[in-house]
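In this supplementary section we document a worked example of the pipeline. Step one takes a protein sequence of length 600 as its only input; no multiple sequence alignment statistics are reported here. Step two produces a three-dimensional model, which step three serialises into structure tokens for compact storage. The input and output of this example are shown verbatim.
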Amino acid sequence: MSPRASEAFLAGNDLPQRWGQRERFVILETGFGTGHNFLATWQAWRDDPARCERLVFIAVEPDPLTAGKLQQAHINSPWGILAAELTCAWPPLTPNLHSLHFEQGQVQLLLALGDLKTWLLELVAHVDAFYIGDSAWQPRMFKALARLAAPDATLATQTTSSEAREGLRTAGFGLRQAPSDITLARYAPSFTPRKAPSRMAAASSERRALIVGAGMAGCASAWALAEQGWRTAVFDRHASPAQETSGNPAGLFHGIVNAQDGTHARFNRAAALHAKRVVADAGGMAQGLLRLDAAEVSAMSATLEKLGLPADYVQAVSPAQASTLSGLALHQSAWFYPGGGWVEPARLARGWMTQAAAHTSFCGSVHVARLFRSGNTWQLLNAQEQVIDEAEVVVLANAGDALRLLGQPDWPIEPVRGQISQCDKALLPALPKLPIAGAGYLLPDVNGMALFGASSQAGDMDGAVRDDDHRHNLAQLARLVGHPIDIPLTALQGRTGWRWVAQDKLPVIGAVPDLHSPVDRPLDQPRLVPRLPGLYVFTALGSRGITWSALGARVLASLITGAPSPLEASLLDAIDPARFVSRGVRSQASRESRRTPEGD
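The serialised model returned by step three reads:
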């Protein structure tokens, strides 16, 4: 795309004038290519003293360039500095919605890699301006654009075909006067469909939220809302953040591979790619991770080829290759995640609070006894029924205690007790250069200690450090490294915590369902379930709190503020707390359909 064509898209959408003084402006392009239109728009934003606070550029690209080819394409770019930043941030080319942040988060690129027709149905955003390429028109595209269009959204396209013009008119776009080689339109429908309850932003006159819980989820939520210009107050029963399971000395983050590439694999991949970028900023070690697997490396490689997953996301390596990477003699094949690694969870949580410092406050040693709805606000009450604080928006990010404040909803979430073990690193023959995971895990040197584990007991609420669990962790470690481990129990230290886990092994993130609201539509889809206004939950992170927290928090912030979602619609439904309601509805409908009428 030439600079002249980029100027036509800007001018055709009345930019930069239309984004002036706006809180947020969202643009959707139907083909990213070399990124010329994005770079031209970014430069125009930088040059405009009256620019919007935040610019979000969404682009769908079915055939993305490699980082090397992208760099080559911009050797003589008029946007050289910006092009270099884009190339540096270029993601692994996995079929995901990649979220890239620039200008301290004020400019965001949401890059959807894959088929345009599929992605237009998956994007969750209110688009203010469309850049439509000449070859982008497909059946049903017009309706999809209308679904995404914000009121008075504008559109510029290089096509002048009568089919495209008529399709735009039918979808609610009014054509505007334009040069002969371009079509311009503005969205002005005669009828606007209702939005799904889960896709409606919170009503808040002050852009302020209360967050209960200062673990990984709560601190990440404060950070993500600060990115959107929201103020928060974070409350925790402990005197400082990250004191429970988030207080472990270290933890892992990485993606997963599944031959079916289903919901769980796709969400974990998106979250791991997100975590890599965020953890590196907090001083974590994103230098790779090995996950051992009993399968043959040839079968693992065939799976990667079938899924089209690139080597900078994951590689299948032989036992010899795994041994070279880790520095230990390993006896199994492994998945090598170049973007995986480890970090101290509390350090990550504190880093988020530091980044959000101008927009958040921490209130420690505070026990929230219950929630109370008063008019349009939610009140946090202490044990004496006194109001701790109140706001129109509340986020419950306090693990299992969120269920207590919600009145113990019938959600299949349970606590799983875990105990880690650690000892002086001199007690092991060697430590790996990279984290090794599988049935258990072993980390590299963590402040002079060897850290391994962890045990897993559902429903066990015993907080004591137990010798039996140390024995379990030692047995796991022996299987992991392939040789006996002889460490006396008296030399081991431990720490116990609880991971709250949903039955489907996915987090619970989103607006809380309202089970008492009248309904006038089927509830078989989570997005259609009514919601309690202004009340959100972020829990059930299980053992993947480091991997899931950053993406989960940004998803939560988008749901609250109305910003474009960094996660596609099908995955939003998969982590929505209302999924439990919809499953119950579908299960009941299935039982009724199988019921045989009595009598003849």
